[in-house]
Specification:
The chain is of the alpha+beta class and about 200 residues long. The protein has eight helices and six strands. The strands form two sheets. The chain has a three-stranded mixed β-sheet, with no helix packed on it. The chain has a three-stranded antiparallel β-sheet with strand order 4-5-6. Strand 5 and strand 6 form a beta hairpin. The chain is globular and about 55 Å long.
Length: about 200
């Protein structure tokens, strides 16, 4: 499972996670829980599946999202010792360790980077509120993301249905000074992301 989820930004409440944990216990299931966006949750505080079912959860997390270290490739897993010892056997034969600069950078982030998380969360929240509000005004059907920095939307124009994450790709490509009206004109004319990219490069 992945929560907050990419690309929708949807996450789970404590009650929903408790229900999932009970199902896992009932059917003797292991849970692999990708919580890489855990610190980028906007309303309720993130609840980890590892807190609710530690005996059957393999937690995946790392520095890439909430410390903005995507290129550093520094992550970790946590879980029951018996499972991790078996994972380690495969890992050591198939995956190189991160370079020392990534390891030291991660240590610095974990020790002194929490203020940056709060600043980023506030900035992402402001952008989330602004963009979702504008998209709804112009006819997108979209959920307000509860976490992460992505959203899933669809835009109905004539016979075309355009979905995000395409929308977010377009927004990332926009240059300063290009207005929302210009974006809408591009959306209206294009049938796919590939059709939009040449226009956005100009």
């Amino acid at each position: 499972m992945n929560h907050p989820c990419n690309p929708t930004g949807v996450t789970y409440s404590r009650e929903e996670l408790e229900a999932l944990a009970n199902v896992a216990r009932q059917y003797n299931l292991m849970i692999v829980s990708d919580e890489i966006y855990s610190e980028l949750t906007y309303s309720d505080k993130h609840v980890s599946m590892a807190e609710l079912a530690p005996e059957r959860t393999i937690l995946i997390n790392g520095t890439s999202k909430f410390y903005a270290m995507t290129g550093w490739r520094s992550c970790f897993i946590a879980g029951p010792k018996d499972y991790l010892s078996q994972i380690f056997k495969v890992h050591q034969a198939t995956v190189n360790t991160p370079p020392s600069v990534s390891q030291y950078g991660s240590i610095a982030a974990y020790h002194s980077g929490d203020d940056s998380i709060h600043e980023m969360r506030e900035a992402y929240d402001q952008r989330r509120q602004f963009l979702i509000g504008r998209f709804r005004e112009i006819g997108y059907q979209t959920l307000l993301p509860e976490g992460a920095f992505t959203s899933s939307s669809k835009y109905l124009t004539g016979s075309k249905v355009m979905t995000s994450p395409s929308v977010w790709l377009w927004l990332k490509k926009l240059r300063l000074g290009q207005s929302l009206a210009n974006l809408l004109a591009l959306v209206d004319q294009a049938t796919s992301v590939s059709a939009m990219l040449p226009a956005l490069k100009n």
